[in-house]
Amino acid sequence: MESLIEQFVFALAVYIAIGIVVGLVFLAFFISRLDEAASGASLFFRPMIFLGCVAIWPFVVARILSRGKINEQEE
Question: In a designed cystine with 57, which of 8, 22, 36, 41 is the match (CB 3.0 to 4.6 A)?
Fold first, then answer.
């Protein structure tokens, strides 16, 4: 049972570590490319959404790879 718990904690740590890296890269380079409204946001905006980026990093990566803007209308 302890091994299962250790594996779960390790997997959670890896998930969070990857999320931190993805979140930092997203906020540093990609957020203004994907959402034009975020380019003019205050300095407090990016730290506020950082934890959300860490939590849902697979979706953030999918959005980056799709190269579609958030406010862009599809035809």
Answer: 22
Measure the N-to-C terminal CA separation of the chain; round to a whole number of Å: 53
Half-sphere exposure of 42 (CA within 13 A, CB side): 3
Residue 19 tokens, joined: 């999320």
Q: When comparing pLDDT for 36 and 27, which is higher?
A: 27
**Whether the Cβ atoms of residue 54 and residue 16 lie closer than 8 Å to each other:** yes
0.70 exceeded by pTM: yes
Residues in the chain: 75
